[in-house]
Design brief:
Elements lengths: L12 H4 L6 E2 L5 H11 L3 E5 L5 E6 H9 L13 E2 L4 E2 L4 H11 L3 E5 L5 E6 H15 L1
Parallel strand pairs: 1-2, 5-6
Antiparallel strand pairs: 2-3, 3-4, 6-7
InterPro entries: CBS_dom, CBS_dom_sf, Diverse_CBS-Domain
Protein name: CBS domain-containing protein
Keywords: CBS domain
Length: about 140
């Protein structure tokens, strides 16, 4: 029986993440966060503390909630953000990010360094782009 060597593709989250993460503070107005999302063409904003560590995330889904509940535009982010967002370390494998996003049904995954500071973002779109690139290579 021939020895078959399994090939690994050790791509890390840091290889596919977007480094320009849009952030805000917990007291920032939801209208200002919506403007940031629109101007930067992103689906989420990470809410950080004074050390740059994620304490929440505001996503497109949260904006739907804001509109559905007719909340005033000066509502602070902390009132609508998802607290303690799920994050992933920059050195984690891409497959780990994919599994985490699929299992938890999330579309935005803040990436943190060893100290817990936000250094990037992986979105569902990034995963799709990565997968499409891999599939085109395998053709």
């Amino acid at each position: 029986m021939p020895l078959v060597k399994k090939r690994e593709l050790p791509l890390r989250v840091s290889d596919i993440m977007v480094k320009n993460v849009i952030t805000a503070k917990e007291n920032e107005k939801i209208r200002d966060i919506a403007i940031k999302m629109y101007e930067n063409r992103v689906g989420s904003v990470v809410i950080i503390d004074d050390e740059g560590k994620p304490i929440g995330i505001v996503t497109e889904r949260d904006m739907v909630y804001v509109l559905a509940r007719a909340l005033p535009p000066d509502t602070p982010a902390w009132m609508v953000m998802t607290e303690n967002p799920v994050v992933i370390n920059e050195n984690a494998l891409v497959i780990e990010a994919m599994d985490k996003m699929r299992e938890l049904n999330i579309r935005h995954l803040p990436v943190v360094d060893q100290s817990g500071k936000v250094v990037g973002m992986v979105s569902f779109r990034d995963i799709v782009d990565f997968t499409a690139t891999l599939l085109s290579i395998l053709r």
